[in-house]
Amino acid sequence: MAMVVDYQHDLSFPYWTSTRRRFDPDSPFFSSGNIERELLAKQVALDLTEDERNQLEKMVAKDARGVFCPIVGCGARLISLEDFEDHYNARHTASCSVCSRVYPTSHLLSIHVSEAHDSFFQAKVARGYAVYECLVEGCGLKFKSYKGRQQHLVDKHKFPTSFEFFKKALPSKKQRQKNHRKQAMHKKDEEASSKMEVENETMDGLVSAVSKLSTSDSSPSTVSFGRRHTRGLTFVPRSVQHEKRADFRLAGAKR
Amino acid sequence: MADDSAASHRRDPIKSSVGNVAAQRRRQNAVTVGKERRESLVRAKRLCRVGPSADGDVPVEGNDMITDEEEFLLEAQTSSAVEDLKSTVAYQGKGAMQKRVNALRELRRLLSKSEFPPIEAALKAGAIPLLVQCLSFGSQDEQLLEAAWCLTNIAAGKPEETKALLPALPLLIAHLGEKSSLPVAEQCAWALGNVAGEGEELRNVLLSQGALPPLARMMLPNKGSTVRTAAWALSNLIKGPDPKAATELIRVDGVLDAILRHLRKSDEELATEVAWVVVYLSALSNFATGVLVKTDVLHLLVERLATSNSLQLLIPVLRSLGNLVAGDSHTTSTILVPGLEITDGVIKVLVKCLKSEHRVLKKEASWVLSNIAAGSVEHKQLIYSSEAVPLLLHLLSTAPFDIRKEVAYVLGNLCVAPTGGDGKPNLIQEHLVSLVQRGCLSGFIDLVRSADVEAARLGLQFMELVDMGEFTYAAHLFSLLLI
C-alpha cells in the first residue's frame, strides 16, 4: 500500500511518521536524473563515416576534463559538469521554494521571499514602514516603496534604469535567447562564447538575474552551461551504420 | 556541388556537399572542427530534448554553425529532392524502383547530415504523403529503409513536425512485423520511438494502433542493435502517465524473461535501455511490480549496481530498485528481510551509491534507504548498524540541499518505530540518542532554516522527537530557534 504523503495542504503539524514515499516517473523528484534521458527522447539518425564517428566520440571524451567556474572571483576548478552544477547551486544560487525563481545570493533570495510571499511584509508596507531593503549588500538603506528602492539603486548604485528586481513573469525562452544573443554580440568574450547551453528554467532565470544584477563587468554576459556528460557518459548522436561496399547494398543497420 | 553517385560508397564529409568554400576552410582546421562538433552536439541535445519547459518552440540560438546562405541552399536542395521523389513515385515504367530509391536516398542524405535536418523544408514540399507511399507493402527493403530513415529524422524535430508523421504510423507499425528484415524493422522502431518520445497524445495513438506487441517482441532476441532500439522505443512508449501500457507490456509472452536476461547478461548499453523499461514498469504499474519482485530481479539490479561504473546505467538501475521498494510494501517486508543475503547486498550497493561523486546517485540512494528504514524495527536496526549512517551524517552537513533532505528522511525514519494509530510516535531512543550525540542536530536546524517548507517541517519534526526524548541540550537549541 503505497503512501504518498502530501503535506502542502496540511497546515497542522503532525508528528514524524515513518512511511514509504513513492513518486511518479515524471515527478520533479526525478528530474535531475532525467536530464540526460530527456535528451534522448528523440534521436536523429545521423549518417556519419567511421572517421566522423570516432572524432565525435573522442571529442566527447575530451570534454570531460574539467571547467572553471565562470563567476569572477571564484575560480573553482570542477572536474565534471555535475560537479559544476553542484558547485554553482551551492555557492552561486539560491532558489525560492514558493515560485522557483533563482537568485545569485541567499541575501537576495531572502529579500525576494519577504517581498513576494510574506503577507506580514505587505502589512508593514501598508502601515508605512520602510521595509524595502537596498539590494546592495553593505548599504543597509530601507525604503517605503518598491519604486523608492528602485530609484535608489539607479541613483546611488548606478543600476540600469531597466533593472527590475521582481519581474512579474519570467520572459519567454525566445526572449531570453534574444537577450543573450544581444549581450553576446556586445561582449565578444571568447570564453563566454564557447558556451554550453542553458538547460532549464531556473538556470535561465539565474542568468537574467546575474547579468542584470552586476553593477560591474564581473560576471560574464552570458553565464550559461549545459548539462554535458559527467565522467563515464558518452553521448554520441546515433548514426545508422552500414557496410562499405561498391554497390550500395544495406547489410544491416548495426550499431 | 560535390555529390557522390549512387554507385560509389565514399561518403562526403558533412559540410562539403553544400559546396561552400568557407565550410571547407573550416573543415581543414581540426581544432575548429572540434569546436563545431562540440557546439553541434550541444545543439543536437537541444533539438532532441523534450522537456517540460518546452513551449512548443525549439530554441534556436544564433546559428553560427551554418550560415544563412548554406541553410537556404540546403532547404532548396531538400525541396528539389522531394520534387524528384514525387516524379519517381508517379513514374511506373522501367527502372522505377531504382529511381525511387535514389531519390529517397538523396532526401535521406539531406536529412541526416547534421543534427539540424531541414525538416520544415521537407514537410512544406510535401514529403510525408510520398514517404507513406514508399512504405507500401511489398516494397523492396532498400526503399522501406530509406523511407523509414527519412521519417525518423523528421520525427526528431519539433512537436508539430513529429505529429506530421501521423499518416505514416500504421505502416511503420506494420513493418515491425516478424517478416520484415531486421534493418527495416529497426529503422521503423527508431521512427516510432521518436514519435512516442513526443508526448502522451502520440503515445496513446501508437498504443491504440497496436504498436506495443511487435515492439515488445523485438526485444526478445539476445543481442543486436535492433533489440536496443526496440527497448529504447518501448521505454518511450510506456512512460505514461497512463499505466495501461506498462501493464500490457509485462503481460506479453517472453518479455519478463527477456528483461531478466538482458539485465543479467547484456552489455551495458542494452542493459541501460532495458533498465529504463523497468523504471517505468515499476513506477507505473502495480501489477508489473508484483510480477517483477517475484523474480530474481532484485539480485540482478544489485549485481549491476555493484559492478558497473557507468552513470547512464546506474541511474535507471538504482531507480528501478527504488521504485520496487517504494511501490510495494511486500518488497521490504517479504523479500528484503533483514538477515538475508539479498538485503545485505542491497544495503551494500546503496552505500556504494552514497559514496559516489554523482549527486543523483546520492540523492536517490538516500531515498531508497529512507523507504527501507520505513519498514520494521529490524530494518531500522540493520541500516543503523551499517556503514550508511556515518556517510549519511556526513552528507547531512556537507551535501547539496536536495540530498540533505533525503538524508533527513532516512535518519528520522531510523528513530521512529512503526505505530498502529496516530498517537505519539514510538521513539527508538537508542538510535535517536546516538545520532544526536554524533552531531546531526545542526543539519536538521539548517533544514528548518531553509526556504523549503517540506524541509523545514522535517527539521522541526525531528526537533520535536528529540524534545520528546527529553534532552535538555536539544530543548535549549529548539527554543533558541524560535527567537
TrEMBL record, chain A:
Residues 210-224 have a biased composition (Low complexity). SMART domains: ZnF_C2H2. Residues 171-185 have a biased composition (Basic residues). Residues 96-117, 134-157 form the C2H2-type domain. Residues 186-198 have a biased composition (Basic and acidic residues). Residues 171-255 are annotated as: Disordered. It comes from the Eukaryota. This is Zinc finger protein 511. It comes from Theobroma cacao (Cacao).
From TrEMBL, chain B:
GO terms for biological process: protein import into nucleus. InterPro entries: ARM-like (IPR011989), ARM-type_fold (IPR016024), Armadillo (IPR000225), Importin_alpha (IPR024931). Gene3D superfamilies: Leucine-rich Repeat Variant. Keywords: Protein transport, Repeat, Transport. One of its GO terms (cellular component) is cytoplasm. It comes from the Eukaryota. One of its GO terms (molecular function) is nuclear import signal receptor activity. The keyword Protein biosynthesis does not apply. Residues 1-14 have a biased composition (Basic and acidic residues). Residues 1-37 are annotated as: Disordered. Belongs to the importin alpha family. This is Importin subunit alpha. It comes from Theobroma cacao. The lineage of its organism: Eukaryota, Viridiplantae, Streptophyta, Embryophyta, Tracheophyta.
